[in-house]
Amino acid sequence: MASAPAPFPDDWQRALVVAAHPDDIEYGPAAAVAVWTAAGKEVHYLLATRGEAGIAGLSPAEAGPLREEEERRSAAVVGVSEVEFLDHSDGVLVADLQLRRDLAGALRRHRPDLVVVMHGGDTWTPPEVTPGALNSADHRALTRSLLDAVADAGNEWIFPDLTETPWSGVQYVAVHAVGYPPPHVVGVSDGVETAVASLVEHRRYLEALSDDPVEEQARRQVDMATLTEDGGRQVGFRLYWG
Hints:
Elements: E1 6-7, E2 14-19, H1 24-27, H2 30-38, E3 42-49, H3 60-77, E4 83-88, H4 97-110, E5 114-117, H5 137-153, E6 172-176, E7 184-187, H6 192-200, H7 203-209, H8 214-225, E8 227-229, E9 232-241
Parallel strand pairs: 1-7, 2-3, 2-5, 3-4, 5-6
Antiparallel strand pairs: 6-9, 7-9, 8-9
Helix pairs in contact: 2-6, 3-6, 4-5, 6-8
Keywords: Zinc
GO molecular function, one term: hydrolase activity, acting on carbon-nitrogen (but not peptide) bonds, in linear amides
Protein name: GlcNAc-PI de-N-acetylase
């Protein structure tokens, strides 16, 4: 029998939430971000790509700036004012040394206590549940590289060409969990409506996905990303020591 989820630790002040594309955070832990910033935590976003290959019928040259602007507006809704893009190419992320180097440099710049990253498993279901919808190759590459980059960021002899001061202050790495029960949870009942409003800011992207009203799509996605337990809403994570 699986043990009950544990509360998410609160002994941190600055978080860096890392994702492959604009909208990844809003489809995932944005409700937790809303709760954290409302409690006075400092949260920054780091995106590996601008999502320029994400809108059918719209060229990457047009989609990239549009999706970047949607992400900045979306982040502002949940209290995040700093959004950095690494400018890797959308759809073809590779878990290689270049991505690790860029992530390590970003960790040194942002100096987080907590690092949050998207689910990077092969499928969108827990490993014990098969079959499942395949996860994006970009998500898998980003999560694997980020987990490695946490150690790289603190080692002055790895990527010595980086100019930023090494950072070994990451206390926790939290991977957004799929399935239930997750090992750790954040109560997000107070952040659900803010998360819906945040995802709505990805209007052009959502309009390309479905003819359903954008607000309905956003609420469905946030409902799927937030677990219901004892009448409250939660976001689950797998937690690792930094």
